[in-house]
Specification:
Elements (H helix, E strand, L loop, with lengths): L1 H10 L12 E4 L9 H4 L2 H10 L30 E6 L5 H14 L3 E6 L14 H17 L3 H5 L8
Parallel strand pairs: 1-2, 2-3
């Protein structure tokens, strides 16, 4: 998903008419790296990645590890007017996602981070009605609302942006 987002930004978001992209949302991105393969991936997930990666690539392949030194610059993401990155605090990918957020924030000041405390990767798909899932859904709905609102409306206070 990140590769598609960066390719769209590289081609110019305004050139995608009639589609109007107003934001980028990453919910629990599945970033990994070769360095942590044995400690953070069980055998089933190692096999999944082996099947999904291009032949000869490792978990340091840029779409899987966008913070690796060999990965392309994240600067194309600056084309997005709003970016929201959501991560669960107990997700094994938490540290990588935080580093990714910090790198993206250097290019796009309108980048927000939403952390679900005490929860693991994709918990919201299994625990639909817990308070943390409801908080995630509320933040997601607000992000969509903000993306559909003009900057002038936000500045005038007609919409309160939550962070």
């Amino acid at each position: 998903m990140l590769k598609v987002s960066m390719d769209a930004a590289d081609s110019g978001l305004e050139n995608l008419t009639p589609v109007r992209i107003r934001g980028l949302l990453l919910i629990h991105p599945g970033f990994h790296c070769e360095e942590r393969k044995m400690t953070h991936l069980d055998e089933r997930n190692r096999k999944r990645y082996h099947l999904a990666l291009p032949i000869g690539e490792t978990l340091d392949y840029p779409p899987v590890n966008p913070i690796h030194p060999s990965a392309p610059s994240l600067s194309p993401l600056s084309a997005y007017p709003h970016i929201l990155i959501m991560v669960a605090e107990a997700d094994s990918r938490y540290d990588m996602t935080i580093r990714f957020f910090e790198m993206v924030r250097a290019y796009c000041l309108h980048t927000d981070l939403f952390i679900s405390p005490g929860k693991g990767h994709q918990f919201h798909l299994k625990e639909l009605n817990c308070s943390e899932s409801n908080d995630l859904y509320d933040r997601l709905a607000n992000f969509i609302k903000v993306c559909g609102t003009t900057n002038e409306e936000i500045a005038s206070g007609r919409l309160q942006k939550q962070t």
